[in-house]
Amino acid sequence: MKDLLSSDHVEIDSILDELLAALEKDDAAEVFQKLDFFWARLAMHIRAEHLHLFPSILEAVQKGEPNEANDLNVSAKFLRDTLEQLKNDHNFFMRELGESVKQMLAMREDNWRDESDKLKVLRAKINVLRVRLERHNELEENYIYSRAEAFLPADVQRLRSKIQKELENLPSRFSKSG
Ligand SMILES: [Fe+2]
Ligand SMILES: [Fe+2]
To answer: How far is the centre of ligand 1, averaged over its atoms, from the C-alpha of 123 (Å)?
Structure first.
């Protein structure tokens, strides 16, 4: 789990770097393309966590697994709170990126008028998102991904393949760009 989702973090980070480089260059058309791709890839990752990983962990917590009784109550509360926080982050990322894509569409419609000022605003927004995403990914990698394996030994293969499927489920509009 850790390998699968952590390496996806790395891939998504590198798309984010490309987006920030395009913003640095003030190249609106390229920004739009990278932003759209970043949004889609992060959405796929988040879907895998929302639909498969987080519910499986919550279910295990509710059932009182794992059997190692080392302060399970504390861990369960901690896990529930952490998952809640991570879900709030996901909502924030998707909302911000959805709005940004909408703004870029409006800019394109407007033939990129005043693009430089608008891109500056967008860059500030993406930088805020990047800081929150970094913290988010650290939290997942340190406390969630590693625990999923300990929590769900029987289910791990099934869960892995469901997650893998989501991570490969790239929207068709990107299939040609590779
Ligand atoms: Fe996440
Ligand atoms: Fe993640």
So the answer is: 22
Of the ranges 82-91, 133-142, 147-156, 162-171, which one carries the lowest mean pLDDT score?
147-156
Ligand nearest to the backbone CA of 9:
2
Ramachandran class of 174: left when φ > 0, alpha when ψ lies in -120 to 50, beta otherwise: alpha
Closest among 48, 47, 17, 46 to 34, alpha carbons compared: 17
Least confident stretch, 57-61, 136-140, 148-152: 148-152
113 CA to middle of ligand 2, Å?
36
Kindly identify the ligand whose nearest atom is closest to the C-alpha of 163: 2
Quick check: bond before 153 cis, omega within 30? no
Residue 75 pLDDT > 90, yes or no?
A: no
pLDDT for position 77: 84
1 within 8 A of 145, measured Cβ to Cβ: yes
Q: Is the pLDDT of residue 100 over 50?
A: yes
CA of 72 to the centre of ligand 2 (A): 24
Positive or negative: CA dihedral 81, 87, 91, 94: positive
Give the Cα-Cα-Cα angle 162, 168, 172 (nearest 5 degrees).
130
